[in-house]
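Section 3.1: Structural characterization of target chains.
Under the original work plan, the team committed to producing a structural model for every single-chain target entering the pipeline before any wet-lab resources were allocated. The record below documents one such target. The sequence was received from the expression subgroup and is listed exactly as submitted; it comprises 285 residues.
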Amino acid sequence: GLQATSLVLLLLFLAANWTTIFLGVKERSGIDDADAVLGFGKLDGVVNWMLILVAFALLIFLIGAIVAARHIAKVPTIRLVSNKQPPELMIARGLTWHLFNSHIWSTGQDAAAVIKNELQLLLPGIKIFLDVDDLDDIGALEEYIARSQMILFFLSKGYFRSTNCLREVRSSLTMRKPLVLVQEAHPAKGGTLEELRAECPEDLQAGVFEANWRLAVWHRIEDFQLVSLKIIAEALLLRMPNHCRMSSLPLFVPGDASTQTLVFSKPVVLWASPANPGAAELACE
C-alpha cells in the first residue's frame, strides 16, 4: 500500500513538472518547440499519458496484492476451533515479548530456533525472545525474563547444569512467571522426564515439575512437532489478557492431521493378544 502510494505520488509529481515545463516552453517559444522538446503538442497529451501510467501502476500493485493475499491464505496458521479465526495476540502493559525461549546451546539451540521460527509462522505477530536474536547483555537475563509474558523451558541434556539457564529458571520462579515445558525426546540430546528432573537442583524441582505446567514433547518429525507447537501456543494464549479466564483453548491448523479423516485404503486385520491387558480395548478404539 505504501509503495503504491509513493509511486502514484511520484508520477503525479512528474506530471506536474511536465505540465509546468510544457506551459513554459509553449509561452516562450510556441507549441512547435514544446512538441519537439516534450513530444506533446497539447497539454491534454501530457495529462492523458500520466493518467495511463498511474492506472497501469495501480493495476500492477493490485495484481501483486491479490497474489500476496492468496499466498498468505495458503500459509497454514493456528486457528481457534470455536470460530475458525486466528487468535488475537495480546500482551500485558509494560512487557516486550509474549514468550521467552530458555535453552542450553549445546543440546537445544537448533530446536529453540525451529520453535521460534515455526511459532512466528503459525502465530503472525508473536514476539519471542531468543538469545541469538535479542540478547544484548548477558548480565540482564533477569530483566529479559521480567519483560516476558511467559517462559518456555526447553528441557534437554545439560539444561539444569548451565549457570545461565539456572539464572533464568530461578528468576522465572521468583517472579512467578507462567511456564511451558518442552522435553527433548531425542535420546542423544534429551532423555526421559525423570532423567532430566534428576539434573535439576532439588530446591527447583517442585516449581518446575510439580506445578502442573503444560508439557510438550519435542520430536524431529514434522507432524509431531506441529502437535507440540499447538500445545505451546495454547499455553501461551491462555496467559494472554483476553483468554486468561479460560481453562482450555482448542486450536487447529488447516490441513494438519487432526483435521483429516484417516482411513485405511484397504481392509486390515488387527491382532490383539489376550495376554496383553488393554490390547483388545485399544484395538477396538
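The two ends are 53 Å apart (CA to CA).
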